[in-house]
């Protein structure tokens, strides 16, 4: 009864919680790849976060908060649904978030909230294959990234700086300041490669990761100051957290995704209540990102769906001796990418237990760095916690949405079969005895290969990838990266077998289907390329680049009606899709519909004013419309651009 009275009192004290019209604005900020040990409000002496420290002094700090997975889409799925990975089934990049899951934006919009998301990376862009379904119930989902093209920087293609994302969010607030609103802001800067802008690049030349944290903090300080100037800060409910941490070489892991130690699983978490209620409280009980959604709902007196598996953190406020709250995390990435074993962990009492081929047990009170494995010495404790994990996995996976039980629908399986692939789930469900800890250097090499390919340095990583696929042919991602590297080098004869092997090992990996489609297109096998693109579009209908690629193949194979239909969808989904506008305008021109084609070609020429092709196609359309002078002008621009020397 005491606990119930405490919760009731807390809810009563939250200003405006009882009436929908008076509910506070909610601002959720997720700092990608930010370690807890870099936060001043969590004890860091590095001096990186004075702005966040000031906010923490006005809020509630959870000293032991943990992510449920060390991957961005998996962790954010738990954060926004209040469910564990084994329930929401978003366990890798590109996995669809089911519409049947409880979803914080949808629940808040149903209560009259306007909803907006501003994300800083293609990884959380629903329109590019990485995060399908994440834009559900958002009135605005600001993403619009694309894969890096030759000559582009990362900030021009696959990610944005914090200051850019925050400015776009403030612009939205300018037009939506009459609440209540739910605003999710995701900032990517601390993710590798670590390249902080000036002056942080110089100041932190020896520690660029810290430079990214300091830059994030400074950018957030300006954002918070702007909120205060608009009289929006004090009354808002603010949550700041991270999706996961970063290895930085600890336990051999340079980045994240494979291992489950505190370096990548412990995250900062602070909640500032309206009017700074409960300011200065530090909660020592464990908290999880899975607990954030139910916490916000309870704070607003909104019913928590039965499917949500997290627990409201409000119940920990004011308790002198909070109860132990075990915290679960898992990663399927080692199996899906490398063919190694999954890992799962449970933090309970004084222990961290990691379930894998070689069980690990650490006394985190005496050994916070998890350096002394006690699994053999303390067999009774290890066996007890292992049984707890098994029971929890069984219980928490029960009732998972039906739509997520099978990743490949019959239509996709039929297409895979037509391509010669066995479209079962054996590759996903097979177990492996390989302990990821013993192969972490290979995971590091794969990550470096990905960055090199992205930066146009594919040739230099081909020898290393060739050695890996020869020695460990079960590593799906090695075949994928090697196929990409060969394709970027225009060696399609060698690229295609590697990409086929990647699909054989993981038939539901849409990125491999997309890459092999591009390689087949370039090598002239348009029919097979079309089938791969169809698989991708069927699975991720809002992936604009994949749909454009399908339309390109259809145009080449005299399926003009299909090509036009797909191009219309491309430009509807992404009005600034240069190639979509260009090809749609060109096809319409050739079909004798120059007047209909004109706005698409004008858009393409505006999007890439230095494209001689866009101006030439525009000139042709204008000429067919009888606008000879305008056509002459555009043709002159096209000629000048064609003659101009390449940069």
Structural features, described:
- With 647 residues, the chain is of the alpha/beta class.
- It has 26 helices and 13 strands.
- Mean pLDDT is 92; it is low at 1-18 and 424-430.
Q: Features of this protein?
A:
single chain, 647 residues, alpha/beta, 4-stranded antiparallel sheet, 26 helices, 46% helix, 10% strand, disordered N terminus
Topology:
Elements: H1 2-13, E1 26-31, H2 50-57, E2 60-66, H3 72-81, H4 85-88, H5 104-109, E3 114-118, E4 140-142, H6 162-176, E5 181-187, H7 200-203, H8 208-229, E6 237-242, H9 262-265, E7 266-267, E8 269-272, E9 282-288, H10 292-299, E10 327-331, H11 333-338, E11 343-348, E12 351-355, E13 360-363, H12 379-397, H13 410-418, H14 426-429, H15 440-454, H16 458-471, H17 476-488, H18 492-505, H19 510-523, H20 526-539, H21 544-556, H22 560-573, H23 578-590, H24 594-607, H25 612-624, H26 628-643
Parallel strand pairs: 1-5, 1-6, 2-9, 3-4, 3-5
Antiparallel strand pairs: 2-7, 2-8, 6-8, 10-11, 11-12, 12-13
Helix pairs in contact: 6-8, 15-16, 15-17, 16-17, 17-18, 17-19, 18-19, 19-20, 20-21, 21-22, 22-23, 23-24, 23-25, 24-25, 25-26
